[in-house]
Amino acid sequence: MASQDRNAMGDAAVNISGFGLADEEVTIAEVLKSVGYNTSHVGKWHMGDIQESWPTYQGFDYAAFPIHQQGQLAIFNEDAAKEEITMAIGEDNYNSKYTLDDWFRPDPGHMITGLEAVIGGEVREVHMEPGEKWTQDKYNEMNIRYQAQAMEQLRLLAERDEPFFLQYWPLVPLSTTRTTREAFTTPNGGTFVESMEELDEWIGVILNEVDTLGLRDNTLIVLMGDNGHFTKYAPGSGFSPLVFRGGKADTSEGGVRVDAFARLPGLIEGDSIVSDIIHISDLFTSIARIGGAMDAIPRDWIIDGVDQTSLMFIGDTHGRRAHVLI
Length: 326
Fold this sequence. Notes:
The strands form two sheets. A five-stranded mixed β-sheet has the order 4-3-2-1-5. The chain has a two-stranded antiparallel sheet with strand order 6-7. It has helices spanning 28-33, 70-75, 78-82, 136-159, 191-212, 253-256, 280-290, 309-314; strands at residues 38-43, 62-66, 114-118, 124-125, 164-169, 221-224, 260-263. It is built from eight helices and seven strands; from the N terminus they run αββααββαβαβαβαα. By secondary structure, the protein is α/β, with parallel strands linked by helices.
């Protein structure tokens, strides 16, 4: 995998962006698909809102995903406006002083939200009626739906008795909106911590289902965060910086160092700890090695990921990466 800066994806495409992952970029789904893997994506995408950037144009046979992300889903709704998380959304807190023409005032609550598609087929919006407004409750429902669809895809892929790659990026609603929750059960009552507690239970459900389906011994499972915590939402979110300085969007360790776990019984020793640096791009090359798809990795441009399978499987004490450029 080339780093995000090499393929012009230095920004997370969270709102209306008009750009995205280029068609010529090669994803791990395309690499694995070339050697016979079935591929599915469920959840967040963040790779852009142009057609060529969508999952089913980047190697996935099936995809369920929101076309936009946090900006639209989390704050472009009247629930967020009523709690003054965002302004000028809806009628209650909108000031028309500088509005010259209502025809040019878009309502982000009416944007396209969740999409579903199969490779070679039409991409369609789902679970929204014509003219229906987006709400925080719809956001929460989308999160729950993606968990159910991830489980559904897991079972469907397992039934085929063929190698598969299931990519699940849980939505975990990014929000400080509190009114849509009936109760707070965690000790600090943080909105994000509540979501993390829910996600923790869902991970257990997935792991148990992998075992039930008889896939435990020949399935690599990788679980990881995507960035440090969002410091600007603390303390109401329930987040804590712990021992690392900084958070999401910072280049300090608290912004880029995340928890990551991998399970493959018989090859990865249980309870083992890797202290060396593994960069997210290394998963591209390492998973290609495990899937027998190294020959499908492009050789005509720079691949930033390095093969870290010896660190994971053989138990080497030294990784193949001494630094990361941030």
